């Protein structure tokens, strides 16, 4: 979601807020690494949230992140195929 | 040199301003006031060389206008069901409100549509289409994962990050002025189908 206020008003069970342009919930077309990072974050929130209505803000700055590096660091260097 | 719409989205400094599109649905006086203030801030920025007040103004106006025009629905209760298994043992679905459909299916009515489309995860890329006029769909039909991360989910399934990727998945078209049919019929219908298929958790890409 792009808007924390809206996510709270909608009482979503879990929400991941991203400062991305509206209409790009997983990232930019043609940027699979970015889409992957966001989907992993959403799934991690799905499994780790312990209370109803947990809304997390992702720190990513749209295209100013090196998403391939984030994935490589996250998966401990075993990034083949990521 | 002309700036393409896509370049604006690519530019991280302008990305949050995409909500300014809602300006077209505000009163004429408000539009005039917006441009007056914008003009003054630009003159000042040229003199000082500091453009950050312009950035701030655009971002704040975007939030304010979006909140005013697109008033969110509110709910008092938060539905809740904790994930009871590990992700690597869970069956997961990824859904979208991005108006994705498959060639041959009826396109969404972009003036408001509570229906949904079934999207098998193995749909050939060239068969995916998008019908939605309320967000920038440039490039989305060619790479639907920006609004429906179905191929990323399949990768996560192959790597064991999730137990199983649900197929088919479902797509809605998010511009729904009257959501009563969505809330009473089509929403519960899709939830029921996912439950029947044994899905443990859902990620929705909202547009």
Structure, described:
The complex is a heterodimer of chains A (82) and B (207). With 82 residues, chain A is an alpha+beta fold. Chain A has helices spanning 4-9, 32-48, 67-74, and strands at 14-17, 54-57. The longest helix of chain A is centred in the middle third of the chain and has 17 residues, at 32-48. Mean pLDDT of chain A is 90; it is low at 78-82. Chain B folds into two domains: 5-69; 87-205, no CATH class. Chain B is 34% helix and 12% strand. Chain B has helices spanning 5-10, 28-48, 52-69, 150-158, 180-196; strands at residues 91-96, 100-102, 117-119, 128-130, 164-165, 169-171, 201-205. A three-stranded parallel β-sheet of chain B has the order 5-1-7, covered by helices on one side. In chain B, helix 2 (28-48) runs antiparallel to helix 3. The two termini of chain B are 30 Å apart. The interface between A and B is large, with 45 and 56 residues.
Observed structural traits:
heterodimer; A: 82 residues; alpha+beta; two-stranded parallel sheet; 2 strands; B: 207 residues; 2 domains; two-stranded antiparallel ribbon; 7 strands
SSE blueprint and pairings:
The complex is a heterodimer of chains A (82) and B (207).
Chain A: H1 4-9, E1 14-17, H2 32-48, E2 54-57, H3 67-74
Parallel strand pairs in A: 1-2
Helix pairs in contact in A: 2-3
Chain B: H1 5-10, H2 28-48, H3 52-69, E1 91-96, E2 100-102, E3 117-119, E4 128-130, H4 150-158, E5 164-165, E6 169-171, H5 180-196, E7 201-205
Parallel strand pairs in B: 1-5, 1-7
Antiparallel strand pairs in B: 2-4, 3-6
Order of helices and strands of chain A: HEHEH
Q: Which chains make the largest contact?
A: A-B, 45 and 56 residues
Q: How much helix is in the residues of chain A?
A: 25-40%
The fraction of residues assigned to DSSP E strands of chain A is 5-15%
Gap between N and C termini of chain B, in Å? 30 Å
Q: So how many helices of chain A? A: 3
Query: Which sequence of strands runs across the widest sheet of chain A?
Result: 1-2
Strand element count of chain A: 2
> Which overall shape of chain A is indicated by the principal axes computed on the Cα atoms?
globular
Q: What gyration radius of chain A follows from the Cα positions, in whole Å? A: 13 Å
Strand proportion of chain B:
5-15%
Query: Mean pLDDT of chain B, as a whole number?
Result: 89
Write out the strand line-up for the largest beta sheet of chain B, numbering strands in chain order. Answer: 5-1-7
Low-confidence stretches of chain B: none
* Quaternary assembly: heterodimer
Major sheet characteristics of chain B: 3 strands, parallel
Structural category of chain A? alpha+beta
Global shape of chain B: elongated
Structural class of chain B: alpha/beta
Number of helices of chain B: 5
Major sheet description of chain A: 2 strands, parallel
